[in-house]
Write a structure and sequence with these properties.
single chain; 269 residues; alpha/beta; Rossmann fold; seven-stranded mixed beta sheet; 10 helices; Ester_Hydrolysis_Enzymes; SGNH_hydro_sf; SGNH_hydro; Lysophospholipase L1-like esterase
């Protein structure tokens, strides 16, 4: 689902965030976050092109989730979508470590953090995996680094939040590469199996990192793969969600969100 791009030079990345205002109380913002008002929920979405809404021409799942959370709670919800197409876990860690970066500032102010990261870590091996030629575990180094980075990303979030109550939701993927009819046309049968196996393995690493940190892992693999037609949830590139796919992710996130919002047991230690 993720563009198979080479590692980004993070210092040259320009964050382009599409703002969408869907109600008087649900706002997407790009300005420096202000102190959180009583009863207000601030959400920051960190991640790759899935988070940014690449190739969808729609409100991406973070804004949809914010709308749903507002409808459920009736309170003010502000969404800051900092998804960057092509971002991998190394890149996200660098953004969070960069002093006064949008990611650092927004995370510092957010009581809810959404994370979707990891698929682009394997982008350099897209062709090997999807052709069924990834022999001898060709992604072992990248997988090991992803596991390390996930732990560091969560630790950095806790530092930025200064152990304030925070709900952290980490999504997996339905596929780290393409899926649906596009994958059937472009990948070999063995390549589609290998892509699915890498996805399951990646999701397990994300879930393990969340569990170790008492964050919440949100399974989106199952609802996508169990749908009657996964192609109907994907953009024309087969690589990213369409509006229906983003809506499904948003609903799945809401179902995993405590009601009312409660701090992770990790917080306040």
């Amino acid at each position: 689902m993720i563009q198979t791009l080479r590692r980004l030079a993070i210092g040259l990345v320009v964050l382009t965030i599409v703002t969408a205002i869907s109600s008087a109380d649900t706002i997407s913002e790009v300005l420096r976050p202000q102190p959180q008002a009583a009863g207000q929920v601030r959400i920051v979405a960190l991640g790759d092109s899935v988070t940014s809404g690449h190739n969808c021409n729609c409100a991406a799942f973070p804004q949809m989730y914010g709308d749903l959370l507002h409808d459920r709670s009736g309170g003010s919800v502000i969404v800051n979508n900092l998804g960057v197409a092509g971002l991998d876990s190394n890149g996200l860690l660098q953004l969070l470590d960069q002093r006064n970066s949008p990611a650092e500032q927004a995370t510092d102010a957010a009581s809810v953090v959404l994370i979707t990261i990891g698929a682009n870590d394997f982008g350099d091996h897209h062709d090997d995996v999807t052709s069924g030629q990834c022999t001898g575990d060709c992604v072992s180094d990248e997988f090991e680094q992803l596991q390390v980075n996930l732990g560091k990303i969560l630790a950095r979030i806790h530092v930025l939040r200064a152990d304030l109550p925070t709900t952290i939701l980490m999504t997996g993927y339905w596929n780290v590469f393409k899926d649906g009819d596009v994958a059937k046309r472009q990948y070999t049968p063995s390549g589609r199996i290998a892509s699915d196996q890498l996805t399951v393995r990646t999701n397990a690493a994300i879930a393990a990192a969340a569990h170790a940190d008492d964050a919440t892992y949100v399974d989106i693999y199952t609802p996508f793969e169990d749908s009657t037609d996964i192609t109907g949830l994907l953009a024309s590139d087969g690589d990213h969600p369409n509006a229906a796919g983003h809506a499904l992710i948003a609903r799945t996130l809401l179902a995993a969100t405590p009601n009312p919002l409660t701090p992770s047991p990790r917080q306040g230690r």
